[in-house]
Write a structure and sequence with these properties.
3 domains, Pnp Oxidase, Chain A, about 200 residues, seven-stranded antiparallel β-sheet, alpha+beta
Amino acid sequence: MQDYFDVAFTPTIVELQDQKGSRRIYADRAREPDADGLDLAELGHITARDSFYLASVGESGWPYVQHRGGEPGFVKILGPCTIGWVERNGNRQYVGTGNITATGRVAAIFVDYPNRTRLKLYGNATYHADPTDELLAALDAEEVRNDGVVTVEVVATNWNCPKYLTPRFIEGEVRAAIEPLHERIAELEQQIVDLSPS
């Protein structure tokens, strides 16, 4: 994989960093060694998500951002630097799919709202309109109704700053957090019943 900053920091961006006084911070970090693939923290973060945001670049040069969601773990690890997921039927505009087919360049951000962590990545994506049985098996999607599959060769990753990331919780997380309170309320209600005169 490449260094994230080598991919992200164009000459214009470096010039702005120089002007704003932040270049020296990133110049040191940009010299860190490249990884051979996604590390365990990145793998765990990606596969635990139930959604992420995907940006693709079209032939017009304009970016297009869309939400992708499913059950936690719907994004699968297919290799040291490869992730993939099943495309589901949506509004059938195929803007992202068309952009991937035309240019293949994508960026994604995977956010863990409760823990205020987010992972950004750049990659080269491929849309598989008619995925092979082997690819569907690797995605645990042999029986899933799909509109094709997207695989991404991850080029670079970067953990993003948690500043301004508001914690948010999905229904299952809230349910798990308040279950002990419901149990305690039930215990206290039973104690009241037990102490009440018959």
